[in-house]
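cron nightly-structures :: item 1 of 1
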Amino acid sequence: MKSTIVIGHKNPDTDSICSAICYADLKRQITGGEYIPCRAGEINGETEFVLKKFGVETPRLIESLEPRIADVQFREIDGINMGISLKRAWEHMRDENIQTVPILTKRGKIKGILTLGDQARFYMEDQDASALSKAKTPYSNIADTLQGEIVVGNPDDKFAKGKVVVAAANPDVMEDYIDENDMVLLGNRYESQLCAIEMKAGCIVIGLGSKVSRTITKIAEEAGCTVIVSPLDTYTCAKLINQAVPVGHIMRKENIITFNLEDLVSDVKNTVSKKRIRYFPILDNEERYVGIISQRNLLNIERQKVILVDHNEKGQAVDGIRSAEVTEVIDHHRIDSVETMSPIYFRNQPLGCTATIISMMYRENNISISPTIAGLLCSAIISDTLMFRSPTCTPADESAARNLAAIAGIDVEEYSAAMFNAGSKLGKKTADEIFHIDCKQFKAEQMTLTVSQVTSVSRRELERVKTKMLPYMEELLPNSVADMLFMMLTNIIDESTELLFVGQGAKGVVSAAFDSEPADNSVMLKGVVSRKKQVLGPLIRAVESI
């Protein structure tokens, strides 16, 4: 069974990361399946402190859920080298039931490709008796193709000059059409064999498994003539011998269409739909061949199963969410626009933190909470409720956090101060890093609002942040998908927020939302610490009323 990803929103906060880790743990214990916690962005300083405190690895980063070739069940078929005969290549393609095979270098790089069509064209169009020499065919290929053995000569030598001749006439007639370096197909007649060698043939092929006399062997060795003995009759030898040509002679070397494991399936589909080719080689990041994909493989791709935690809005979800199969949502925000193909488990409660919901689900399923999981869940609740100061905090949140703290062995007040201090180190961060620490997008009517928030226990630190954030926001807006940008500079100790804003009409929206007269693209909001409950709602209502 394919694993299920558990993931929070973009620009993840502590609740998003910790809830993904803990819910994946809970699902594994309940179902026995494979659930992998992931993240949709870089973690902030506060979350880094939490994970380090409880010895938990940072979840794997996923930038997009758009399926890639690596997610497709392509065929891991062996390639062949360019010296192999057409006969062996055909047998390989027949056994694997494919119509295309890649030709590889010793290092696994694509040298060319061979198709059944290429082989058919060679047999139908290239009937020149010099085909083997033009292809510089190894004698080992010829012996293998004719099911024979080389009794005189070096298997690694190549038939590089002359043509193929069938010696069906008397020796006196043979002299008229055998040239130097030719390959002569003949029977067990001593006179014909001797004549061919004396005419300086490069190779003689003796059919019907006839025994080669010591005299002929000695004369051939002295003349430098290769001798191959085949159990097949002369007609069959003549019919099959061109199959000894190495694939490198007829393989396609140019305009080869290949794909990389990291290529998006959607892009690959667009390409292959325009081509009359059934199979395409797949390469890894080092350009080495790993397998073959067909158009049928692209139609049968299995969608990645995903559980969303701490969000349900499409704009906040990891890129490519439409290509995945959302199976569950665990959240505490307003319900928005994530769409599913079928009914799912959706749990949304008006609490201060997603982690509170997950701690409830542990108890509901009679699953004991380990100290590590308790520490992560407690940290998420403290973070999201600003240590119970946020108006979104409910008695259930605080009760859950204190019970979890007891299991984790931490003092809530002391631990909260250390955690917030770790997350408040904003001075060394760039304006771009600060803005995207905790940044979310929301839809209101036909407009898109981006609302970022940073918290600190230091008024002076927030003042320093403000001086560089407004110029940055003005510069960011033209390249942003948002119509207005907002940033909350929240002082946890004072329980206040200075709201910065840019964008056409933003001042009027803020004025209407908070019944105030903003100055210099900012407004001070006393008693406001919650984006979800105290800022987002008024902003959206103000936009909708304009």
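cron nightly-structures :: done
The chain has 20 helices and 24 strands.
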